Inverse folding.
């Protein structure tokens, strides 16, 4: 596995108050819970962290606090620059550099764009030319509506300081093509799709990025350990726990972050507030999520997770 972008990387929730300001008390508690439980990286102000909705002071505070709290630890902090245009992305990466960030991730341009692969390449070329820190491609076509194709990713991997890609493709043949093309490059590839985690790791993925690890990172730590040891049976045993967790969280409709925030409020990870004024959780969804909470607490007890992390 490639060291700069590998292992268990958690897209961290951004706890906020009713006015959308960073809830630093819960945020610091969540960061330390994750770092103490074997997480390799914190993916800050990404989609799960409400990147596109956070007010600018909240975006800055979330990145600054994560960098401060992880300083001196083994856990890497990948800071988010999720903005619709190239110039704004570069300006925010400059701010991250000033905060002392070593890593930043960026989406392709996603507003008033032609969506061509040439434009994707020009965007990342300009970012590389204008910044100094290590960079990760945030490939998330279901929100940006820009598909970064495997050959384009390979060309990006040849750029200076490009060290990883968060691959959200649910299309297994394309994900496998990415794994093949990036195998001998400096670019680590992390799988996001829960159902593909086991196959992806056994096919050479460097890591996983999963929002459910905000609540239960132990399953993902175990599946990565088994993959590193080439223990196929161990991978699938741990993967069964991941799938049980994913099934327990299933409740159709609504906003995914709002549902996770509600679960987080039951587990004392955050308050249920989001930065999205229209996001809400129905009573039916709340009942399902309350069942998820009971399941997670029982699994924490079974696995011997210390009481202060529950």
């Amino acid at each position: 596995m490639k060291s700069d972008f590998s292992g268990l990387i958690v897209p961290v929730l951004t706890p906020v108050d009713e006015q959308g300001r960073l809830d630093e008390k819960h945020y610091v508690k969540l960061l330390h819970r994750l770092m103490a439980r074997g997480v390799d990286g914190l993916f800050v102000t990404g989609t799960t962290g409400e990147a596109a909705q956070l007010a600018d002071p909240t975006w800055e505070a979330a990145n600054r606090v994560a960098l401060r709290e992880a300083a001196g630890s083994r856990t890497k902090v990948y800071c988010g620059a999720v903005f619709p245009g190239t110039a704004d992305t570069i300006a925010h990466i400059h701010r991250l550099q000033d905060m002392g960030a070593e890593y930043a991730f960026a989406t392709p341009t996603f507003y008033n764009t032609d969506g061509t692969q040439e434009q994707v390449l020009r965007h990342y070329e300009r970012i590389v030319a204008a910044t100094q820190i290590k960079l990760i491609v945030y490939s998330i076509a279901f929100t940006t509506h820009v598909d970064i194709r495997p050959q384009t990713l390979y060309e990006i991997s040849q750029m200076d300081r490009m060290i990883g890609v968060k691959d959200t493709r649910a299309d297994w043949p394309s994900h496998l093509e990415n794994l093949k093309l990036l195998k001998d490059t400096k670019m680590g590839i992390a799988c996001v799709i829960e159902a593909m985690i086991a196959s992806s790791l056994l096919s050479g993925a460097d890591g996983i990025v999963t929002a459910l690890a905000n609540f239960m990172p132990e399953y993902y730590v175990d599946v990565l350990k088994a993959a590193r040891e080439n223990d196929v049976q161990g991978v699938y045993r741990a993967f069964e726990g991941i799938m049980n967790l994913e099934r327990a969280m299933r409740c159709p409709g609504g906003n995914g972050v709002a549902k996770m925030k509600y679960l987080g409020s039951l587990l004392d990870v955050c308050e249920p507030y989001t930065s999205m004024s229209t996001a809400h959780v129905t009573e039916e969804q709340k009942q399902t999520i309350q069942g998820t909470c009971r399941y997670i607490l029982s699994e924490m007890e079974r696995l011997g997770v210390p009481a202060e992390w529950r």
